[in-house]
Amino acid sequence: MKVVDMHCDTISALLKKRRAGEIAGLRENNCHIDICRMRKGDYLLQNFALFVELGKCRDAWQEVQELLGLYEQEILKNRDDIAAVLSYDDIEKNRSEGKISAFLTVEEGGVCGGSLEKLRTLYKQGVRMMTLTWNYPNEIGYPNLSREQGEKRKDAEKNENPSARNQDILNYLNTPNVKDGLTQTGIAFVQEMEKLGMIVDVSHLSDAGFYDVYKSTKKPFVASHSNARAICPCVRNLSDDMIRKLAERGGVTGLNFCADFLTQVPPGVKNPGTIAAVVEHAKHIVSVGGMECLGLGSDFDGIDTHAELTGADQMERLADAFKKNGFTEGQIDKIFNGNVLRVYREVLL
């Protein structure tokens, strides 16, 4: 079963290792994703995010350029096995040559500093999808889980009353931002992205921002790594209405393997993650939005290791679980690759 995965943070993980003095590359490493593991997992395409944490770098644009340089270096070094995607035809070309496709994304629209010219530069550099926010407000809009609110969570964790402490933490995790959406700059950004043929990604974005994207665009957009809020109430997941709106627009949400976005456990309790929970989210999303709106968005190398899906080489285990839970081969094919490829075919220029 060919795998198309809409989100991983492997490039950022590799840069972090190199800065720590480790020798780390894309061919083989101790991350969740490398070329050897993707080969074993039967990958057709992997989205590689250039993830920038605004609160931990002095120059977000310089940081994204350094990540881009590492990505380009690794693609060139491993060109016999993997090749970049700039158009949908590139995916088919790579497939015919037996190569994995590398699809470049940016996770954190704030790297542009509100500049449409920098957005266009990213497109020229090969970026074909952008997550509008991470966990910080930026010139484009606001997230659901903000690091600013996270500081309040840290204060809550110091509360000596366990019940009150746990409730404060759950309030932080489960209360969506329904007030702060896209800015006027943000609206200009998503409209420019549509013109360019760059896919809009609403994972991490506030609820209000999601609906602003829906109102301000015409083409399919994605939630590259978000699950179902009805199954796990964390606001990083999508509400049923959001799933329906995404499906109506022809978009896709990618199943995220982060254990805390799959099942909510009491604060402080270890959450290892199960394949059964991934399947449960899949069943719900399909029941709400239909079979066409679901894909994969592992979040590998951006999350703690899932106990049962430990890396890219384990995807056959997930496919087997879908089969055992009543999904047909055709339905699994849509979830594992077909639905995302349809969006790419429609949006990429």
Largest sheet: 6 strands, parallel
Helix content: 40-55%
Low-pLDDT sequence parts: none
- Order of H and E elements: EHHEHEHEHEHHHEHEHEHHEHH
Instruction: Estimate the mean pLDDT confidence.
Output: 95
Strand content: 5-15%
Radius of gyration from CA coordinates: 19 Å
Instruction: Report the count of strand segments.
Output: 9
State the helix count: 14
Q: Please tell me what the overall shape is.
A: globular
Classify the secondary structure makeup into a structural class.
Answer: alpha/beta
First-last Cα distance: 27 Å
Question: What report would you give on this structure?
Answer:
This protein has 14 helices and 9 strands. It has helices at residues 10-19, 35-40, 60-77, 88-96, 116-124, 147-157, 162-174, 184-196, 207-216, 240-248, 259-262, 275-289, 315-324, 329-347; strands at residues 3-5, 43-51, 82-84, 100-107, 129-131, 199-201, 222-223, 252-255, 294-296. The strands form 2 sheets. Strands 1, 2, 3, 4, 5 and 6 form a 6-stranded parallel sheet that branches. It starts with a strand and ends with a helix. The mean pLDDT is 95.
Write the topology of this structure.
Elements: E1 3-5, H1 10-19, H2 35-40, E2 43-51, H3 60-77, E3 82-84, H4 88-96, E4 100-107, H5 116-124, E5 129-131, H6 147-157, H7 162-174, H8 184-196, E6 199-201, H9 207-216, E7 222-223, H10 240-248, E8 252-255, H11 259-262, H12 275-289, E9 294-296, H13 315-324, H14 329-347
Parallel strand pairs: 1-2, 2-4, 3-4, 4-5, 5-6, 7-8, 8-9
Helix pairs in contact: 5-8, 6-7, 12-13
